[in-house]
Amino acid sequence: MTFNTWKQEKATAALVDEAQALAEKLAAAKPHHVESYAAAARFWAASYLAEGKDLYELSHWKADAVSRFAAAAQTRVAALRKKREYDSSDGLSVWLHTARAVTETRVAPAVRDIWQHLMDAGRYADSMAQELMQDAGLPADMGRRVPAGFAIKD
Length: 154
Prior knowledge:
mainly alpha
């Protein structure tokens, strides 16, 4: 194994570990935390859709567009966390992991687990999402759903 191959493998393993850590965090979280993640993820999807970018269709985007989104999302998550806007950054981090899973399939199982937890979130997730969208002047979305290519168990 060459150094570059080893370096790439280590980076990929780190992405898998990060996504798995979030999936495990959601599995162990109190219901209101999972609801908050689910609501914030829907808010970010609505926010990007207002700009003409359908995050639920990330798996159909061109590879360079997914990479640009992931880089921008990572920067934005860091900025939001620096400002202590954790709920918002948590929702965007779900989309960051989703984008990473589009470009690196080994991340996908953990991301499917993340989406399973969000789909299983309590009923308050929907009203929280609607309130976030309304407060931001965004139109209502199509409700709770999973991005294309990340089907989960019913």
